Fold this protein.
Amino acid sequence: MSKNAFYSQSGGVTSVINTTASAVILEAKKSKKINKVFAGKNGILGALNEELYDTSVESTSFIKNLKFRPGGVFGSCRYKLKDFSKNQKEYQRIIDVFRAHDIGYFFYNGGNDSADTALKISEACKKLNYDLNCIAIPKTVDNDLAVTDCCPGFGSVAKYVINSTIEAALDVESMAVSSTKVFILEVMGRHAGWIAASSAVAKESYPHAPDLILLPEITFKERDFLKRVKDTVASKGFCVVVASEGIKNNKGRFIAESGLKDAFGHSQLGGVAPNLANIISKKTGLKNHWAVADYLQRSARHIASGVDLDQAFAVGKHAVRYASKNMHGVMPVIKRLSNNPYKWTIEPASLKKIANVEKKLPASFITKDGYGVTKKGIAYFKPLISGKLEHKFSSMPKYKKGKLKLVKKKLPLWV
């Protein structure tokens, strides 16, 4: 007998997460084991609140066109499930909702915390004797998931940052004689410097930038940094810095720590770029400008990577195929077969090897001085920003909202 599936999006969204959603829904229609796909409104909160979108009422064209839409069409969330022993009620509620709506398949599309959620639900179902195939689907711009070669969402962010670094550097060079001497671009990356490091590919187009890359893996040394900035300006007239938001001092504290925490208990970062700009202004007197890529880097569908789109679709498709084969507690991951020509495939990996494991930038990717990227790193990054980019617009995109119809609730309200 066929069962319904529950799909939801979790954590920070990307320019290609809806591509994965499209793949899941379209592939599920081909499966004889999956009846309807219900999408959780705002991630796992959709399960707790029994707010499930019935994707079967959407037109095929709407589902297919999700491939071109950034953001998370069904809504996402940052919500951390406590351990089963500390809050069994939450897990019982999720199972009650799944049982009420005949759900036998669970697809959770997100990053590290989401893999942890999928694993917890998988293990809770065994303890509570509920038959549910749990599949986590990779997504994170930070590129810090273990086992997989790269994460859907990352290639597009890397492409955005690389192009932005080139363009900003050319701008600064134009004005350096009489105006701005230093430009700082802040990018995402709390503990892993994959995004910042990818900016090094810009040198293949424009050899003069970035001059300094600041990574979370390398302790930030203010005196050395300022010396390098001054030396760079003295030698070529200007300096371009790409800084990861998560750089730390020698005491292990974030340079931009605000003192606040997010829903997962992570420190909220208050902006490393203005912090660095302030240090440069006070200690060197050099005129500078800064920018924070922030949401722009992860939502820029107009400049997305073709490879990233293909991989985002592939992991969604394989997630459904794994579920249809009764695979459980796994994630479809990307395996690199070769760099040039770039070849890759999808294979299943156990969530136990992925959840709560953070993949840092390898030391072999970082130059000895700590401010650059090696040839090995460049060889890793370059293929991920390639591929044909599909557009559905000439001047600006037009997005349809869709019906987004919630199914009728069958249980009391969750309190």
Notes: Residues 3-140+302-352 form a domain with the Rossmann fold fold (CATH 3.40.50.450). The mean pLDDT is 94. The CA atoms of residues 203 and 209 lie 6 Å apart.
